[in-house]
Amino acid sequence: MLANPPHQPQLDPLALYSKSLHDYTLQLWTESRRLAEEKVRAKAAKKQEEDARMGARKDGPAS
């Protein structure tokens, strides 16, 4: 009986490490992008809210 059957390639430690490092970095990058986009959306929502508030003040009764 063969130690590694022909249909299963031998797993190279360097290839496993490289794939693992790639997956980890991709995960970090994806999380970083998600947080950055969330920050931009929050900033845009805050600006839109402030603009709406300023518009309401302009349209309000004159003192």
From TrEMBL:
Q: Where is this region: Disordered?
A: 38-63
Record's protein name? Uncharacterized protein
- Taxonomic lineage from the root: Eukaryota, Fungi, Dikarya, Basidiomycota, Agaricomycotina
